[in-house]
Amino acid sequence: MSGSCSLRSDRSGVDLTRTFLPAMIERGRGGIINVFSTTGFQPVPSLAVCSASKAFVLSFSQSLWFEAKRHGVIACTLTPGPTRTEFFDVIGDGASVVGSFQAPGQVVATGPRARDRRRPPPHVVSGRRNAIAAHLAGLVPRRILVPALDRAMPPATSSDNRGSPIHP
């Protein structure tokens, strides 16, 4: 699945899975690695659509992991944290980032390592700091987490296309 922040790209990932998964099941082998962001572990003001669409990818992929493994097909999610890509050129480097920036090559190397484990996990987070931040996001009450994330993000402007229904 795409790493972009749109419902359309996530729908495309589902469509691609539906296209290729039946042949993998018929062969009794194959692999699918869906990529989503650590934003899927928590709601992020100003990135509402992005964080919600990534939460969809996580839920979809974990269900797929369970269903596919009984057919010999490996399915998992690769979850990078902040990665040095053009995404941060669009939203601006002023955003405080939880975790640490990784190079795209570091993220790409994580997926096959997880897939090739004897018992592939349903998802893997790229980078130790990112894994800790993702885990902690599930422990912090939303009434504390969401305002903190709001303060960490730069204010949206009318020219931003950051994925908020309030700031389209």
UniProtKB/TrEMBL annotation:
Highest taxon of source: Bacteria
Keyword tags: NADP, Oxidoreductase
Gene3D superfamilies reported in the protein's UniProt record: NAD(P)-binding Rossmann-like Domain (3.40.50.720)
InterPro entries associated with the record: NAD(P)-bd_dom_sf, SDR_fam
Keyword NADP: yes
One Pfam family here: adh_short
PANTHER family assigned to the protein according to its UniProt record, in alphabetical order: DEHYDROGENASE_REDUCTASE SDR FAMILY PROTEIN 7-LIKE, RETINOL DEHYDROGENASE-RELATED
Family of this protein: Belongs to the short-chain dehydrogenases/reductases (SDR) family.
Protein name according to UniProt: SDR family NAD(P)-dependent oxidoreductase
